[in-house]
Design goal:
The complex is a heterodimer of chains A (112) and B (114).
Chain A (H helix, E strand, L loop, with lengths): L8 E5 L4 E6 L8 E7 L6 E6 L2 E4 L4 E4 L5 E6 L8 E8 L14 E6 L1
Parallel strand pairs in A: 1-9
Antiparallel strand pairs in A: 2-7, 3-4, 3-8, 5-6, 6-7, 8-9
Chain B lengths: L3 E4 L2 E4 L5 E7 L6 E7 L6 E7 L5 E2 L8 E7 L2 E6 L8 E8 L5 E3 L3 E5 L1
Parallel strand pairs in B: 2-11
Antiparallel strand pairs in B: 1-3, 3-8, 4-5, 4-9, 5-6, 7-8, 9-10, 9-11
Classes of the chains: A mainly beta (112), B mainly beta (114).
Chain lengths: 112, 114
């Protein structure tokens, strides 16, 4: 899996839009970008996955520029319950035979 | 779909005893399952890959005789921590490969060895 770099922590307030950027300069042609969310004492939860341009689902949007060397997870109108660690993973993560290599993730703290 | 159930959610055991953690895929067949360990305030670290009907593959530095993995069916993988010691206390998480859709994770097991 390609190495990723993301901020260690971020703070925001309820109702704000939060954007978390992940750098992945060595992304390969076949690599996808996947974001997971983890609450304390729980397993990671899939948030969104994309290959290029923009992907949107009911909880988040993922923006990927044309060179794919970075990506931005956008969480609209966050609430206190969005406080969690967010992991960006890049690779052939379409359910293959290899386990995932998690980086340090971004600890997002939402304040009232 | 693609739910993985992990049991127990927490367990306390005495030093020297063994503990078994179960990971079940509820609505799909998981040929491959993965076991991770997570220490406080750290990221997940892959311990081993479990393949149905064959021996598990362990990551470098993981003692295969201490962490016994059995994947006897397409819906069940177990991790047994043998002769547990306090340094084995951690959060253990299983995951399953779900076709082309990615990976799904169990809710984790908090192991405390006293």
């Amino acid at each position: 899996l390609a190495k990723t770099t993301q901020p260690i922590s971020m703070d925001s307030y309820e109702g704000q839009e939060v954007n978390i950027t992940c750098s992945h300069n060595n992304i390969a042609t076949n690599d996808y970008i996947t974001w997971y969310q983890q609450f304390p004492s729980q397993g990671p939860r899939f948030i969104i996955q994309g290959y290029k341009t923009k992907v949107t689902n009911e909880v988040a949007s993922l923006f990927i520029p044309a060179d794919r060397k970075s990506s931005t997870l956008s969480l609209p109108r966050v609430s206190l319950s969005d406080t969690a660690v967010y992991y960006c993973l890049v690779g052939d993560v379409g359910g293959g035979a290899d386990g995932l290599t998690f980086g340090k993730g971004t600890h997002l703290i939402i304040q009232p | 779909g693609a739910v993985v159930s992990q049991h127990p959610s927490w367990v306390i055991c005495k030093s020297g005893t063994s503990v078994k953690i179960e990971c079940r895929s509820l609505d799909f067949q998981a040929t491959t399952m993965f076991w991770y360990r997570q220490f406080p305030k750290q990221s997940l670290m892959l311990m081993a890959t479990s393949n149905e009907g064959s021996k598990a593959t362990y990551e470098q530095g993981v003692e295969k005789d201490k962490f016994l993995i059995n994947h006897a069916s397409l819906t069940l993988s177990t991790l047994t921590v043998t002769s547990a010691h306090p340094e084995d206390s951690s959060f253990y998480i299983c995951s399953a490969s779900w076709g082309v859709y990615g990976y799904t994770f169990g809710s984790g097991t908090r192991l405390t060895v006293v």
